[in-house]
């Protein structure tokens, strides 16, 4: 049953006038996005508040049910629900609505509107599919014939995007844009994933949001796969509001580690690790990136709680145990969450939770760039955006962009298709001073990553 969307204050502590302004903005965003919620004709057909167990961190969590958009796309069917979690009701609802809008826009396409061509035959600027990071040379040498990798002479579908540095219209492989694009339809570049799919009040905001997600996932994969010992941020040095929010995570016995996962791009990235040594799930992780260091940590805290709650609900709904998961067969977030629910997994994150490196909030927040686009492109990485906004979403003054940074380290879900190519696994930990020599490919972390 859909709960009436009334406003209640969840966090009664407001540190500054700016915080109050943010709360007002969130209420305005929620009221605007709520227009797409209508039981019979809306994009969102239902909204429900997810109960949070009394011994879990105090947060607001919502799930929205989305209409079946299969008749409106030539892509694969997708799930019909999305969730959002935050420390206030409005923020949680905005997050849930935003996720639903992003997935909706990111799945709708018609083949007749795509351009089919061979890369080498395109006269227009285009993203070379062979420059998109996926597999390392040693992986390619041992791959079976089931995975045909895309080359410059393969005919694939393209959609027009924009080069974020030059502003030039650029053709982008459609399989990198649409979440519902069938992986087997063309030679392989990457599996569909939501990285870089983001909504915003305008194009610039959506692009910044999409870039932030690309940057956070790049950092997580870089440092996890190389088992890099990162600096733990001393939580007694963070702003008072963040200290209070962190105490919500630890109030019932969980341990919290927040790591400075900033890379060579210079954008603040925080990884939050929640450890429960008494109950399951034993391990929950999340990451966030952005220009405001305090907001980055707050977002990481909200995400790690959402990850934990989602895993709790999955554990309640399944008869499977972590011991039944074959790591080599993992191909979903749900299976990763179940694997990392087991207490034996805690030791696999010792390089983070027992890290001897430390930093302060001031150290984490220092030398922050003023633009994510500039941070990426000034570091020598090409970046692109494709506008996937549908007409009904544009009418809400919302835009959805799919941002692609082809040479950052990508997140993967399918364990048999681990993306270890590109060179950043070798270069970034050395450049950041965490390693003295590049990691040997044989030393790459083989434990399936816990990213939600």
Automatic annotation (TrEMBL):
Residues 84-452 form the YcaO domain. Signal peptide: none annotated. It comes from the Archaea. Pfam families: YcaO. NCBIfam families: TOMM_cyclo_SagD, YcaO-type kinase domain. This is YcaO domain-containing protein.
């Amino acid at each position: 049953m859909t709960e009436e969307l009334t406003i209640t204050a969840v966090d009664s502590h407001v540190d500054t006038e700016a915080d109050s302004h943010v709360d007002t903005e969130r209420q305005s965003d929620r009221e605007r996005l709520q227009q797409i919620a209508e039981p019979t004709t809306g994009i969102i057909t239902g909204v429900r508040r997810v109960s949070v167990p009394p011994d879990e961190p105090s947060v607001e969590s919502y799930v929205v049910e989305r209409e079946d958009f299969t008749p409106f796309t030539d892509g694969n069917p997708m799930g019909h629900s999305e969730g959002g979690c935050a420390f206030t009701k409005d923020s949680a609802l905005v997050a849930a609505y935003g996720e639903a809008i992003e997935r909706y826009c990111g799945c709708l396409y018609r083949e007749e509107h795509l351009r089919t061509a061979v890369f080498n035959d395109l006269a227009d600027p285009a993203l070379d599919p062979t420059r998109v990071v996926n597999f390392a040379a040693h992986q390619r040498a041992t791959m079976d014939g089931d995975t045909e990798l895309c080359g410059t002479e393969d005919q694939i579908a393209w959609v027009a995007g924009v080069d974020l540095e030059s502003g030039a219209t650029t053709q982008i492989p459609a399989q990198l844009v649409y979440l519902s694009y069938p992986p087997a339809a063309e030679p392989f570049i990457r599996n569909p994933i939501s990285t870089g799919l983001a909504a915003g009040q305008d194009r610039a905001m959506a692009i910044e949001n999409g870039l932030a997600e690309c940057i956070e996932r790049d950092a997580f994969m870089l440092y996890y796969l190389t088992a890099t010992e990162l600096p733990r941020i001393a939580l007694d040095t963070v702003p008072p509001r963040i200290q209070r929010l962190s105490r919500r995570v630890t109030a019932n016995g969980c341990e919290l580690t927040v790591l400075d996962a900033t890379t060579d791009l210079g954008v603040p990235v925080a990884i939050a690790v929640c450890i429960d040594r008494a109950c399951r799930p034993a391990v929950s992780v999340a990451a966030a990136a952005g220009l405001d260091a305090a907001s980055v940590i707050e977002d990481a805290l909200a995400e790690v709680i959402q990850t934990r709650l989602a895993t709790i609900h999955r554990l309640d709904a399944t008869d499977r145990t972590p011991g039944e998961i074959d790591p080599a067969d993992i191909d979903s977030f749900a299976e990763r969450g179940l694997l990392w629910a087991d207490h034996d997994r805690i030791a696999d994150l010792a390089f983070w939770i027992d890290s001897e490196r430390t930093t302060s909030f001031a150290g984490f927040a220092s030398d922050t760039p003023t633009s994510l686009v500039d941070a990426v492109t000034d570091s020598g990485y090409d970046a692109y955006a494709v506008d996937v906004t549908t007409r009904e979403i544009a009418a809400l003054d919302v835009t959805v962009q799919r941002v692609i940074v082809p040479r950052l380290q990508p997140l993967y879900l399918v364990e048999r298709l681990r993306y270890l190519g590109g060179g950043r696994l070798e270069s970034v930990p050395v450049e950041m001073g965490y390693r003295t020599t590049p990691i040997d490919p044989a030393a790459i972390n083989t434990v399936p990553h816990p990213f939600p």
